Amino acid sequence: MPYQGELCALAAALTWSVSVILFKASEAVTPQAMNLFKNVVALGLFAVTLLVMQGMGELPALDRSQADWARLVVSGVLGIAVADTLIFMALRRLGASLLAVVDCAYAPTIVLFSVLVLGEPLGLGFLFGGALVVGGVLLAVAQRPSALAQEDPELARRELKIGAALGVMGIVAMAAGVVIVKPVLEGSSLVEVTAVRLLAGVLAQLAWAGVFRQPETFAVFRDRRVWKTLIPGSILGTYVAMLFWLGGFKWAPASVAAVFNQLSSVFTIGLAWLFLKEELSWRRGAGAGLAVIGALVVILAKPAPELPQAPTSAPQSVGEGL
Q1: What is the pTM for the complete model shown?
Q2: 65 in the Ramachandran plot: left (φ > 0), alpha (ψ -120 to 50) or beta?
Q3: Is the pLDDT of residue 142 over 70?
Q4: Per residue in 275-308, is it b (16+ CB within 10 Å) or e — as a string?
Q5: Of all residues in the chain, what percent carry a pLDDT higher than 90?
Q6: For the segment 283-320, what is each residue's pLDDT rounded down to a tens digit?
Q7: Under a CB-based contact definition with an 8 Å cutoff, are residues 21 and 270 in contact?
Q8: Got the DSSP string for 99-115?
Q9: What is residue 305's predicted lDDT score, i.e. its pLDDT?
Q10: What is the DSSP code string of 169-213?
């Protein structure tokens, strides 16, 4: 399917934006507890999905090399246990709007890692389109200091710096995790890779909570008051969005997928205006339009996909490549 990776990356940005609004409404629990809850819910869904795939004849690949297993485990710990917890901590300190500003570091970080680690080429069309996306996002989420002070005059300078640092560290950990696992993704089932990463992340979180004796991390499983937002947020933000997110990196260059993922900041602005009745200023509207144009430039700058050749071997089994 042409542009399958780009469509997955775009869908990941949209579903993640919806889940951010749901997670923002779930701040009665700690960031560690929120992250563990969403990962456990998603892990259960992936386990069911794997069972269905197995029943259809798609068996999990257990004969991986030690290097591939190491990539999966390290990617899960970095990208799920560490990165998501840091991002939730930043969300609590900054709020969704300021976190969106910090999130603009995501695409450049992925691009940097993809060039340094994966050796992906960067053409002028991608650089121009990517610059439009990042510039549009920056324009959309930018606020003057006076306006920010009016919105939240009690936000301490120290908390602002800590929140921004936590957000950047979370983005770097997330970018490193997905770049590490990309070589495994290209020849593996998407569902299987995602499930293994989730399992590694959950085990790391459980070990952390046990060693440092954090019983409040498990209290979220008993507090049903937050389930009405956490459960749909977990399904969208971890199960659905993660499949789309890794699908983008599986079927598209990491640098291109990252540009489309960056549109999540623009989507968050639109959803906040639609559901939370936040003001949609000209600055944010213009930034959203600029980012969409940039995404189109990235697509048009890619070489046209080659026509598929006649099959020379048996077709893939059902579910392969999911």
Answers
A1: 0.79
A2: beta
A3: no
A4: eeebeeeeebbebbebbeebbebbbebbeeeeee
A5: 34
A6: 777 887 888 788 778 767 765 444 444 444 444 333 33
A7: no
A8: HHHHGGGHHHHHHHHHH
A9: 46
A10: HHHHHHHHHHHHHHHHHTTS-HHHHHHHHHHHHHHHHHHHHHHTT
